[in-house]
Design brief:
The chain is built from 16 helices and 21 strands. By secondary structure, the protein is α/β, with parallel strands linked by helices.
Length: about 500
């Protein structure tokens, strides 16, 4: 492919990428000839198109992947790592370009959300590139007259189905370890955000053999379904809704193949009576992902605060969120962008209306709506902090995926843990306290895949990430996840007698 240079005009780049898959190393139109619109959620205006993929496109991509993987799997693991390391440096060169493009198509604020995602995407590739030498087996002391050892081998072709809320970064979580481990990957992008990830795949293809990494766009039934069902796909990794995750799980079960599912969350943030209040409030702002309009599976949408701190915590949190500026995602002064789409916008507003109708509930509306007339059709929603909501409420039981959180008082540690664990989800949780014993006891009893103490950071490389219960199956972002999900172990026994 030709040498690529950063394009800092996201509108122009969006048009250049429009209407294309990238299959077998080249851009191509959908087999059907159909495209669908890509819309800027901050203005409601069309910025480009995406190829509307179907079973024919999927079949081409998978067949190319099968051929490419046979050779790639034989490449020395360290050499694969070096190639990915070179690609990571190129992604770093394009980080600002990618940030601008994902801000344009997703509505995520450039400074607070999209730029950090662009930088972190390259970092994930760097991390896994450095782990290539760890793709090794074991010797097993079976008996003195036999040499027994294991080797790690790639699974083959991996299907990676990615979401829209952090599309580049969450795609990197999947394709970086899969490629380093010797697999080929076919990505299915989210309908709402197909362009920035297409650009990432284009950049990576400048370093990889044709066919090893392809990307198709389209909807779930027409494109995602055929990809999961394709007989040559031997692994599926998916991030998205519980409902779609169940469909994928059932389809994969028909083929008896391995699946990684990173699904929903209803994360609990527990603020003990002795917590540093200022620190906890800052943690609540970042943990709820208000700057991403709450569109995060780890969002702290249930804030359990000791009764003695409840009222002052709510006031301080309101003041802090009110200080955030909502506006044009591409404006450096903007803290909060938009939600992703009209259906998501309507869904969030329906939850807010439901909460307001709850007896005793109080909706604290925060942050000012943008006043720029160019943003009049934008999908902006003011953050809402609910108090007085019963724990049986939909707002506390169901994942909203929007800027809505509930603050719930508790009287003692046992009650806090009970409320936190009373959920169908188990992705993440945080505990805020100065007492190490309380912190460790809470960490040991909370039903969550990731528990943080006195911080609320996003997942990153070398942090095993994944949930329990309806939050999913399997882990990402660690050496162990690469080995367990993207290789299989072969045992070899050599009789020396």
């Amino acid at each position: 492919m030709m040498e690529l240079h950063p394009n800092l005009d996201p509108a122009k780049l969006a048009l250049e990428l429009s209407g294309k898959h990238l299959i077998d190393g080249v851009f191509c139109a959908a087999a059907s000839g159909r495209n669908f619109d890509v819309v800027n959620p901050a203005t409601g205006k069309k910025i480009g198109e995406a190829a509307d993929g179907n079973v024919e496109d999927v079949d081409r991509a998978v067949k190319a992947a099968v051929t490419a993987q046979r050779a790639w799997g034989k490449v020395n693991a360290r050499d694969r790592g070096k190639i990915l390391s070179d690609a990571a440096r190129k992604l770093s060169d394009h980080a600002e370009e990618l940030a601008l493009l994902v801000a344009l198509e997703s509505g995520k604020a450039l400074r607070t959300e999209s730029r950090p995602e662009g930088n972190a995407t390259a970092d994930v590739f760097n991390f896994f590139a450095g782990l290539a030498s760890e793709l090794k087996g074991e010797t097993v002391p079976l008996k003195s007259t036999a040499l027994t050892y294991t080797v790690r081998e790639p699974v083959g072709v991996v299907a990676a189905i990615i979401p829209w809320n952090a599309p580049m970064l969450l795609m990197a979580f999947k394709i970086a370890p899969a490629l380093v481990a010797g697999n080929a990957v076919v990505v299915k992008s989210a309908e709402e955000t197909p362009l920035a990830v297409l650009r990432v795949i284009q950049i990576l293809n400048a370093f990889l053999p044709p066919g090893l990494l392809s990307i198709v766009s389209g909807d779930g039934p027409g494109c995602g379904g055929p990809l999961v069902a394709h007989p040559a796909v031997r692994k599926v990794t998916f991030t998205g809704s519980v409902e779609t995750g169940k469909i994928i799980y059932r389809a994969a079960a028909e083929k008896i193949i391995n699946v990684t599912l990173e699904l929903g969350g209803k994360s609990a943030m527990i603020v003990m009576a002795d917590a540093d209040l200022e620190q906890a409030v800052e943690g609540a702002v970042s943990g709820m992902r208000f700057t991403r309009q709450g569109q995060s599976c780890t969002a702290a949408s249930r804030m359990l605060v000791h009764a003695s701190l409840h009222d002052v915590f709510v006031e301080k949190l309101k003041a802090r969120v009110n200080a955030l500026k909502m506006g044009d995602p591409l404006d450096e002064k903007t803290d909060i962008g938009t939600v992703i789409s009209r259906p998501q916008y309507a869904k969030i507003l329906s939850y807010i209306a439901s909460g307001k109708a709850e007896k005793g509930a109080v909706a604290h509306i925060c942050a000012a709506m943008p006043t720029d007339s160019k943003l009049a059709e934008g999908l902006f929603i003011q953050p809402v902090i609910f108090t007085g909501v019963p724990t049986t409420s939909r707002l506390i039981r169901e994942e909203i995926f929007g800027p809505v959180t509930c603050v719930i008082p508790f009287s003692d540690v046992e009650e806090a843990i009970r409320i936190a664990n009373d959920s169908d989800f188990g992705l993440a949780a945080t505990v805020w306290t100065k007492d190490l014993k309380i912190a460790l006891n809470a960490a040991n009893t909370l039903e969550a895949g990731l528990v943080q103490i006195n911080q609320n950071q996003v997942a990153g490389p070398n942090i095993s990430y994944g949930g329990v219960k309806l939050s999913g199956v399997g882990k990402e972002l660690s050496l162990e996840s690469m080995l367990e999900h993207f290789t299989h172990k072969k045992t070899v026994i050599v009789n020396l007698e």
